[in-house]
Specification:
Elements: H1 2-14, H2 18-46, H3 58-82, H4 85-115, H5 126-157, H6 164-194
Helix pairs in contact: 2-6, 3-4, 3-6, 4-5, 5-6
C-alpha cells in the first residue's frame, strides 16, 4: 500500500505539462529539419562546384543581438516571477525590439551577400544554402516575435498577476525564444566552419 502512494507521488513530481511536452516535441522536429538542411549542405559541398566566401560581418552583429535578447527575456521572466511588473514589461518590450532588430540585421546580411555576388538563385551553391537555412531560421524567429507580441498584450492589457497559467505561458515563450537563439548560434558556427 505504501509503494502505491510513493509511486503516485513520484509520478506527480516527474510529470511534464502536456503543453510543454508538445512544445518540446515541436522543437525536436524543428531541430531535425535544420539538421537535415546542414547535412544537405555538407553533402552538396563534397560534390564540388562550391564557391568559398567570407560570411558578412553583419551576421555576427545579429548574433550578439539575439543573444542579448535571450538575456533580456530571461530577466523579464525573473521579474515576472518576483512581482516587479514594471521591469518585467520593460524587458519584454526590449526583447521584442531586439528580436525585430535581429530580423532586420539578417536582411542586411542577405543584402551584403547579394552585393558580393551571391544571388538568391543560382543553383545549389554555398550562398543558396545560407539564404535557405538562415531564411528558415528567420521565419521561426518571426513566429517567436508573434508570441512576444501576444505576451506584450497580456503584459499591458491584463492586470499583473503571476497565475500558474500565465507562468506556464511565459515559460513556454522563454523556452522557444532560447531555442531559436541557440539554433542561430549553432547555424552560424556551422556556416563559419563550412566556409
Amino acid at each position: 500500500m505504501m509503494d502505491v502512494a510513493v509511486n503516485k507521488e513520484m509520478k506527480g513530481r516527474n510529470k511534464i505539462h502536456p503543453q510543454k511536452f508538445a512544445l518540446y516535441a515541436a522543437l525536436a522536429s524543428i531541430m531535425m529539419m535544420f539538421a537535415a538542411f546542414t547535412s544537405a549542405l555538407v553533402v552538396r559541398r563534397a560534390a564540388g562546384n562550391w564557391l568559398e566566401f567570407r560570411l558578412p560581418d553583419i551576421f555576427f552583429y545579429s548574433t550578439a543581438v539575439i543573444l542579448l535578447s535571450s538575456v533580456t527575456m530571461q530577466a523579464s521572466y525573473y521579474y515576472f516571477k518576483k512581482g516587479n511588473a514594471a521591469l518585467y514589461r520593460t524587458l519584454l518590450v526590449i526583447t521584442t525590439v531586439l528580436g525585430i532588430s535581429f530580423i532586420y540585421l539578417q536582411y542586411q546580411g542577405w543584402t551584403a551577400m547579394y552585393d558580393i555576388g551571391l544571388p538568391l538563385s543560382g543553383g545549389p551553391v554555398s550562398g543558396s544554402f545560407i539564404y535557405l537555412i538562415s531564411g528558415a531560421h528567420a521565419a521561426h524567429v518571426l513566429g517567436g516575435i508573434a508570441v512576444l507580441v501576444v505576451a506584450l498584450l497580456h503584459a499591458y492589457i491584463l492586470p499583473y498577476k503571476a497565475t500558474p497559467r500565465r507562468k506556464l505561458r511565459f515559460e513556454m515563450s522563454l523556452i522557444y525564444w532560447h531555442f531559436v537563439d541557440f539554433l542561430w548560434v549553432y547555424l552560424l558556427t556551422f556556416f563559419v566552419l563550412q566556409s
